[in-house]
Specification:
Elements lengths: L1 E6 L4 E5 L3 H10 L5 E9 L6 H6 L2 E16 L4 E10 L7 E6 L4 E5 L5 H13 L5 E6 L3 E8 L2 E9 L9 H16 L9 E5 L3 H12 L5 E5 L4 H10 L4 H4 L3 H17 L4 E3 L1 H9 L3 E7 H6 L3 H9 L3 E5 L4 H7 L4 E5 L4
Helix pairs in contact: 1-3, 8-12
Length: about 350
C-alpha cells in the first residue's frame, strides 16, 4: 500500500492499493458511515428521458459514497462498497457500488480515526515491502502449492503424481511429477521470494535437488512435517518450524503467538481470555502480549485497552481471522493475553 496524502482538516487519507493484501488491510479499516471517494463509472444523468438514459454508455467520474455495506472476497480479491452518493457531479442521494482492485486509488475519510486503524495502514505500507513465501507441501502421491499472504496461507493448486501400484516407471513418473510442480510454482516466484518445501517422507528432498539443478529460483528451504497438504503448511507455521523465515511475515508471528497462548491456557499458566480477565490483567500491568482478532477490531473500539497495554510496555498482535490461528482465537471470543505473571 502507498499513502498518497493525508488531510487532517477533513480526516481523509488518500491511498493506492498495490497488492492483493492491501484490500484485506483496507477491509479491516473500513466502517459503515465512512466517506470513500474514488474514480468509478456510472451512466450519465439525463432526467428528461429515463429510458434513453438507461441505454447510454457509462461515463467515468469521481464519486464519494457514504458506506452502508462492505464486502470482501478472498477468492477473487475484490472489495465492494455499497452506499449513497454524497459528492460528485450527479445522482446525489442515489445508491452506487465502488469496486476496488489492485492499482486503484481512493480517499477514505472518517469522523474519527482510531489509533489501531492508523497503525493498520502503517502496517500495510510496511508489509507490502516484505517478501511472500511460496509453499509446496508434498509426498510421493500429491503436492499442494500455497502462498503466504498477509492474511494467511492460501491454496493455489494440487498436483497428482500419477503413481499407482508396483508397475510404473518410477523415474519417468518422478520427472513428470516434479516438472509439473515446477511449472506451477514458476509464475509465483520472483526476487527475494523464498520457496519452502515440506511434508513427510523424502519426496521433498528429491524435489529440492531437481529445483537446485535449474539454478532458477532463489532461497529453497526444506522442512519435515507430519502432514501433507494445507494441514502440513499450517503445522509448519503453528509449531514455529522455519521460524527464521516465517517470522518475516505477520502471519507467522500471529500463529506462533496464538499457539503459545493456547499452550499457556491449556496448562493453566500465563495465558488468559475473556473481557473482564484481560481488563484486570491490563490494569495491573500483567499483560506481556495482547492478541486481538482483526474482526473484533472492526466491530469494537478497543483503543483504550490497547493504549493501556502499550503504556505498560506490552505488545499488541492483531490476528487475521483467515488462518487457523485466527479461528482458534475466535473460539476464545476474539481476544486473549499472554501474561508476565498470574493475576
Amino acid at each position: 500500500m502507498r499513502i498518497l496524502g493525508r488531510d487532517p482538516a477533513t480526516g481523509s487519507i488518500k491511498m493506492m492499493l498495490e497488492t492483493d493484501e492491501d484490500m484485506w488491510h483496507l477491509y479491516n479499516v473500513l466502517e459503515t458511515g465512512d466517506l470513500v471517494t474514488a474514480s468509478t463509472t456510472r451512466r450519465e444523468e439525463k432526467a428528461s428521458d429515463k429510458i434513453r438514459a438507461e441505454k447510454m454508455d457509462k461515463k467515468r467520474m469521481t464519486l464519494g459514497i457514504r458506506v452502508e455495506k462492505i464486502e470482501f472476497s478472498a477468492d477473487d480479491l475484490r472489495l465492494r462498497l455499497l452506499g449513497t452518493i454524497e459528492t460528485g457531479p450527479q445522482d446525489i442521494g442515489q445508491h452506487h457500488t465502488l469496486i476496488f482492485e489492485i492499482g486503484d486509488s481512493l480517499s477514505l475519510a472518517k469522523k474519527h480515526w482510531r489509533e489501531t486503524q492508523l497503525e493498520r495502514l502503517d502496517r500495510a505500507v510496511k508489509d507490502s515491502k516484505q517478501p511472500r513465501i511460496v509453499f509446496v507441501a508434498l509426498d510421493q502421491d500429491d503436492a499442494t502449492i500455497a502462498v503466504l499472504r498477509q492474511y494467511g496461507p492460501k491454496e493455489i493448486a494440487t498436483i497428482r503424481s500419477g503413481r499407482s501400484g508396483k508397475q510404473y516407471d518410477e523415474k519417468s513418473k518422478t520427472d513428470s511429477y516434479h516438472s509439473d510442480i515446477i511449472e506451477k510454482i514458476r509464475p509465483l516466484m520472483g526476487p527475494n521470494i523464498p520457496l519452502v518445501l515440506l511434508g513427510p517422507g523424502f519426496e521433498k528432498e528429491a524435489l529440492a535437488d531437481d529445483i537446485k539443478k535449474l539454478n532458477e529460483f532463489g532461497t529453497v528451504r526444506v522442512y519435515h512435517t507430519g502432514q501433507n497438504g494445507m494441514p502440513g503448511v499450517n503445522e509448519l507455521i503453528k509449531t514455529g518450524m522455519g521460524a527464521d523465515i516465517l517470522r518475516e511475515s505477520s502471519v507467522g508471528a500471529e500463529m506462533e503467538a496464538v499457539e503459545k497462548l493456547m499452550t499457556e491456557i491449556g496448562k493453566d499458566g500465563l495465558g488468559t481470555y475473556g473481557p473482564k480477565e484481560i481488563q484486570a490483567a491490563a490494569a495491573s500491568g500483567a499483560v506481556d502480549t495482547l492478541l486481538i482478532l482483526d474482526s473484533k477490531l472492526r466491530e469494537q473500539d478497543l483503543d483504550s485497552i490497547v493504549r493501556e497495554v502499550e503504556s505498560q510496555k506490552g505488545k499488541i498482535i492483531v490476528v487475521s481471522e483467515e488462518h487457523d490461528g485466527g479461528r482458534e482465537l475466535a473460539a476464545l471470543g476474539g481476544m486473549g493475553a499472554i501474561l508476565r505473571y498470574k493475576v
